[in-house]
RNA sequence: GGUGGGUUCGUAUAACGGUUAGUACUCAAGAUUCUCAAUCUUGCAAUAUGGGUUCGAUUCCCGUACCCACUACCA
């Protein structure tokens, strides 16, 4: 049987990095098994729909190199009409609404579900009432006996209500006392007694849409999904899903399940939320996202991360191959991924490690590619330089940077004379005797190499003289080697910077 | 509250019941260099807790503590 997995996001906002990781693990699993990775948009909650979220999700996955085989076309659009490549279209549940009702009614006919006529207000009242007594209201085998549904109302009235009202739902008739035995690819065997579960709504007449549970099971079945890999927040509804497969008689083709651990905040307790990023200065989202109230949330892409670094970091958050390898290309991830080695506990996200990954990828990127990314930044700073020269600069500085955007700050003095000098360094190195020696050494030599020889030959203090020169050339006493700097700016420019410094600093 | 899941250095994790409990990030020190960064070396630092099973438990079982999720006509 061909492996088919799906990523089924809800377009209720930007996809955060935890969601990207879920998609990634699905993708890796599919590719490793030579199967299909499918995208399905679960937009059965019309109230929470956020415009742009669907496109954001697909764009994010594309940026990460997570390309769906089915559900989304080459242009990044969700497929709406069936074709050989996308036989299960449409892939948006709101556009599949016609198919779910009959499945809901099939369950009612078989006695696995029933019609419920309680209004949301009356249920709200039940909840409040229970709460005031310190109890929790649950719609289950006990309470349904006293509520308005097709189990309690006379058949005549049920028929009438079904036809004349639109405020009813189909609820799953949770067995009263049955142990559901389940298996999870990550967590192993799990058992739950149905006595603690409630009668979940499966389908709503009001908008003629299924809820997550029904849509999910029906679509996974119709789309021939073989493994469901999703977040841990779904583990509590796994018994319901098992029971639904059983009720439909789809037990033999039921997918296997894997529930991924959550991504947690770097410090403190709780799961990673979009606010954490702003508070602690790291992105939570793959791409920038502009909120409806004008607020922008940072994305890894815009903050300067390489998509491969982001993906690599994400892959290692909750999974590792059991070896000491940390750097993986997408293909290597595909080859070595295994769902059994995914850890069971939530992982605190570590922003430092994310930066480390980017630094490693920066080093692995060729000077030529980095130069191409750097040239526009040089442009912005009013510098035009030919690519060959930029490549040479990049080669010198790439080990000192984490992001390409760091480059300018590290090497601007190779293109422009410093406008100001770091006071602390001035105090330390700009002393009359040092300045005198610096001038003597530079004026009497033609290049950096001979200058260094001269300093040595005349037994001048190398550190003091060089740092004095560096201060004049770069504006600070830290940075590249003097020889490297002078190779780029030339001896004459160096001398003129020395003179300029003497004018400004005395 | 109830149900389910989880718990190895600060963080991510490794260790098919037998290891001086390993690695990476962070941090600190040293080496190196004209400075800084990089690099190299070294160091700090963990099996939540109490029982049990076993010759032997980080690993298996039970209790406790703590953390997380779920408990909607949301996903």
Describe the structure.
This protein is an alpha/beta fold and 506 residues long. Helix 1 (17-32) crosses helix 10. It folds into three domains: 1-82 and 261-349, Rossmann fold, CATH 3.40.50.620; 96-219, Glutamyl-tRNA Synthetase, Domain 3 (Glutamyl-tRNA Synthetase, domain 3); 423-505, Arc Repressor Mutant, subunit A, CATH 1.10.10. It is built from 20 helices and 14 strands. A hairpin with a 4-residue loop joins strand 7 (201-204) and strand 8 (209-210). The longest helix is centred in the first third of the chain and has 16 residues, at 17-32.
In short:
The protein has helices spanning 17-32, 53-64, 97-110, 120-132, 155-164, 212-222, 238-248, 274-280, 307-315, 330-336, 351-364, 367-380, 387-397, 407-411, 423-429, 432-443, 448-457, 462-474, 482-489, 491-505; strands at 4-7, 36-39, 113-116, 169-172, 179-184, 188-193, 201-204, 209-210, 227-231, 256-260, 263-264, 289-290, 296-297, 347-348.
């Amino acid at each position: 049987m061909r492996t088919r997995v799906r990523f089924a996001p809800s377009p209720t906002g930007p996809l955060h990095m935890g969601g990207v990781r879920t998609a990634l693990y699905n993708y890796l699993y599919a590719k490793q098994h030579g199967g299909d990775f499918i995208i399905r948009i679960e937009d059965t909650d019309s109230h929470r729909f956020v415009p742009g979220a669907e496109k954001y999700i697909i764009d994010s996955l594309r940026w990460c190199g997570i390309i769906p085989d089915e559900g989304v076309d080459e242009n990044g659009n969700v497929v709406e009409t069936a074709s050989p490549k996308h036989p299960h279209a449409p892939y948006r549940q709101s556009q599949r609404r016609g198919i779910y009702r009959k499945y809901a009614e099939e369950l009612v006919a078989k006695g696995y579900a029933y019609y419920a006529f309680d209004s949301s207000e009356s249920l709200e009242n039940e909840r409040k009432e229970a709460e005031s007594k310190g109890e929790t209201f649950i719609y289950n085998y006990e309470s349904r006996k006293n509520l308005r549904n097709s189990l309690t109302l006379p058949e005549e009235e049920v028929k009438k209500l079904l036809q004349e009202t639109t405020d009813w739902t189909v609820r799953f008739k949770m067995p009263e006392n049955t142990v559901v035995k389940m298996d999870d690819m990550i967590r192993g065997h799990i058992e739950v007694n149905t006595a603690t579960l409630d009668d979940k709504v499966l389908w709503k007449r009001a908008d003629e849409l299924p809820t997550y549970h029904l849509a999910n099971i029906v679509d996974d079945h119709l789309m021939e999904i073989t493994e469901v890999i999703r977040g841990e927040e779904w583990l509590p509804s796994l018994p319901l899903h098992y029971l639904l497969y059983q009720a439909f008689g789809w037990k033999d083709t039921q997918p296997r399940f894997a529930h991924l651990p959550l991504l947690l905040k770097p410090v403190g307790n709780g799961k990673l939320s979009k606010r954490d990023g702003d508070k602690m200065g790291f992105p939570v989202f793959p791409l920038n996202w502009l909120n409806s109230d004008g607020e922008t949330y940072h994305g890894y892409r815009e903050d300067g991360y390489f998509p491969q670094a982001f993906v690599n970091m994400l892959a290692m958050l909750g999974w590792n191959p059991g070896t000491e390898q940390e750097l993986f290309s997408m293909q290597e991830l595909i080859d070595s991924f295994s769902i059994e080695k995914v850890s069971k506990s939530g992982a605190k996200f570590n922003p430092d490690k994310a930066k480390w990954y980017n630094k490693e990828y920066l080093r692995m990127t060729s000077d030529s590619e980095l130069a191409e990314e750097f040239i526009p930044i040089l442009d912005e700073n009013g510098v035009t330089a030919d690519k060959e020269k930029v490549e040479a600069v990049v080669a010198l500085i790439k080990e000192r940077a984490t992001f390409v955007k760091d480059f300018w700050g590290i090497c601007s003095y190779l293109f422009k004379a410093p406008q100001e000098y770091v006071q602390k360094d001035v105090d330390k190195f700009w002393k009359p005797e040092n300045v005198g020696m610096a001038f003597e050494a530079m004026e009497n030599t033609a290049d950096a190499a001979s200058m260094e020889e001269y300093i040595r030959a005349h037994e001048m203090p190398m550190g003091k003289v060089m740092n004095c020169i560096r201060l004049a050339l770069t504006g600070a006493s830290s940075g590249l080697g003097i020889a490297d700097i002078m190779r780029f700016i030339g001896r004459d420019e160096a001398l003129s910077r020395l003179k300029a410094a003497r004018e400004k600093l005395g």
